[in-house]
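Bumping with the actual sequence this time:
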Amino acid sequence: DFNYAANDAQTAVAGNNADAGELGDIVTALIPFKDDYLIFGCGSSIWYMSGDPAAGGSLNELDLTTGIYSGTSWCFDGAENLWFWGTGGIYKTTVPGKPVNISRIHLPKLVRDEAVDSSTHRITMAYDSYQNGILITITKFSDNSHSNYFYDLVTNGFFPESSHANCAIYSQLFYQGDAPDFRRLLVGCADGYIRYYDEDTESDIIADDTVTAIDAYCTWGPLKLAQNDDYYGILSALEVITAGGASGGSQADSSNVSFRIFVADTAEELLEKLSANTDYRVAGTITAPGRPRGARIRKRFRGMFLGIRLWNSTAAQTWAANKIIGTIKKGGRFK
């Protein structure tokens, strides 16, 4: 019914002739929610229409300080929360409600670092109920360079992802298949392929079944070694217990894990080393799975702060660490 001159409750409404159709901002996204709400994402504000505009419906503000990036940069999770890329990062809100910036603590410089522009970048978001998280993808039109983030709803943590340029994501859809094996997140990629995430596949598959190793890494730090600010801390032993059970058992076994250990006198200096992945004290390989005899790293490190990086970048291998154990004691006076 596009006849907005009709006199009934379901008539269309022209935005220039009804109070419930007037917005003073550029509309960037239209988001339907249940039967009674339509959300208007704008350049610097968010509004929602409640009810039918010709039958007592109203236009209400959701937020006057942040907008929604585009018509593809939003999704709903399983608890009916709206997630979106807004002016200051990644937000979460109920409808009605007040948006909360989720990325402000974990990724405070996200917007500045990504430097996205709607004319040059495409952002998509989708809720993956199988992995229980939100996938945020950022792709540059010109060369398919991209950076993705998976937000784990269980741990409330962001996990950065990247892949081959051919696998840059331009669209997402969680397919609710009848069979459990078919219920998964589908992503439309730059090379025209539709791909999906499979936790049983240990390498990325590019076009023509080309296998690419996954570089999976995790860093910890800055970890304070010193017991107080006047004395160094000394790490005399370190042990990483990887996942897995006995040989031939029922539990999945971790592959071997490479490690690097960083030490610094200040937290900022350690962060610089971890970010650059250089100037480490020692590097090596941890034998997996479990806690084999002789796997302890018997090196002494003196410093105020400690950093650890674990990774594996070998094709057809995966890794997991259950626990990291260290022995720390008081060192000499800080100079």
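The tokens above came from a reply further down the thread. The chain has three helices and 24 strands.
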